[in-house]
Amino acid sequence: MSIEQTNNETKKQSNFIREIIDEDLKSGKHNGVHTRFPPEPNGYLHIGHAKSICLNFGLAKDYDGLCNLRFDDTNPTKEEQEYVDSIKEDVKWLGFDWAEREYYASDYFDQLYEYAIRLIKKGKAYVDSLNADQIREFRGTPTEAGKESPFRSRSVEENFSLFEQMKNGTFKEGEHVLRAKIDMTSPNLNLRDPVMYRILHKSHHRTGNKWCIYPMYDWAHGQSDSIEKITYSLCTLEFENHRPLYDWFIKELEIYPPQQIEFARLNLNYTIMSKRKLLSLVEGNYVDGWDDPRMPTISGLRRRGYTPESIRNFSERVGIAKRENTIDVSLLEFSIREDLNKQAKRVMAVINPLKVVITNYSDEQAEELEAINNPEDHSMGSRKISFSKEVFIERDDFREIPPPKFHRLSPGKEVRLRYAYIIKCDEVIKDESSGEILELHCTYFADTKSGSGPSSKKAKGTIHWVSAKDHFEAEVRLYDRLFSVENPESEANKDFTELLNPDSLKILNNCKLETSLRNSLPGEKFQFERIGYFCVDTKYSESLSPVFNRTVTLRDSWTKIDQGGN
Ligand code: ATP
Ligand code: MG
Fold first, then answer.
1. Phi, psi dihedral angles at 46 (to 5 degrees)
2. Which fold has domain 346-469?
3. For the CA atoms of the chain, what is the radius of gyration?
4. Is 136 a catalytic residue?
5. CA dist 265 → 38, 91, 217, 235, 275 (Å)
6. What is the pTM of this model?
7. Which fold would CATH assign to domain 3-267?
8. Which residues of the chain have pLDDT under 70?
């Protein structure tokens, strides 16, 4: 994979859809590009939708065309305004704009009804009175032809009158359906007289109680594309064998023909992407809502600290394929590391503190030291951090019995405190009964101050620290992958909820942070030196007591590929 950069955006790669468009523009088949993103408002958008958004809005942008936002709201039982609102927020946040073109399939219910009448009058649609089980049974199997319903030969007049009564609420749910009259022996099951309308005595989030018949997806979708004069109707591969039906409706209605093109959906390992399953994680309280930072939803990624740019770059990198594949989630993590490496301010935070007393540093003394905000971007400047007799270091940075090549602190050994001095560990103070290490007594070497020119001493390692006198305490949340297996959707005999990673969230209290973090704002992003990238949680942070979410570790700890990232 080539990872090229232009102005921080990953360079656009060509793909088979762009080739089709280029060809059509050259031949004059189309003189512009008009796409749409058609979410069903029955859940929050996830990273797979982000790929579709970037594709549809991205193509429109690159070809100076248009992309509509269309809510595919044909099912009144599962759709809610909350989802509509979240979808709009997420698409905007990703950096795309549908201007005034916010449409709803339900806006077309009148037009679709009129189209249905047109097919009835042509003898191409009929009211069937078989029940759902019978319809299924008559449908046949992939290897066995279907059987025609005894109601298939109803007259145009009878169909017209029954359909009108269906619409007027004369019948109960399930009593009748409207079906297209195509071919019960077709090898493609989608063409075996698909259902166009069913009766549902349910109120709809936009049309209220106006309708009690609702169109099926296949009937609503292509006609909505046609009404909006969509040139390319891009959808995922599972719709490939719906395409003949898509084209059949358009041809029989003699209306504007959009072109359906299928591409491979995004699959990520360690991740589930079905909205139904994500909803069950929310409803079962396995996670803290749709925007839990471990969720693959756009709102979850946002709360976790992902940037729109990192998600757009990720989408570009995974590319557009014609065949199903699974992308390693570490590629998504790489994209956010790469972005934050450029823009996040480096700070010092000790998440698992151990006190160090510098015995030869005087009690009264205190110093302000210069710390660089981002070595990748000198325009970000520097800040002052305070140093004092007592500091906290990371418990992990001390080992009583160091393993080979341990270049941090251990008894009798020396290490550099970042931006400060080299210290030597003289004594380990323990709790007498439990043996727990309480603090370390060290001495410092006054002539080793960072930035003060050469000194006779060199330390093999440098560790981060925070002044014990001048710091503040905060809660830090360490997130890891939500699932502990690569493919949580296809584990035989196990429900996906049994495959959750028990260590996907660790809450650490009383972490010691440098004081510059005290006033950080929800959503603000940092690199905690040597630990990872963090952002201020937007849900639990209160003024003056921010909660920090770990966005991603500095390096990939799950696979062997180290993709860098400082
Ligand atoms: P899910 O299976 O997660 O419930 P869906 O396909 O039912 O998703 P829709 O709201 O119908 O969700 O999807 C809106 C658009 O997003 C569709 O055009 C769909 O093809 C696309 N989309 C959904 N999931 C993915 C994915 N994993 N990768 C790429 N595009 C996707
Ligand atoms: Mg769908």
1. -120, -175
2. Ribosomal Protein L25; Chain P (2.40.240)
3. 31
4. no
5. 14, 18, 19, 8, 14
6. 0.93
7. Rossmann fold (3.40.50)
8. 1-11, 557-566
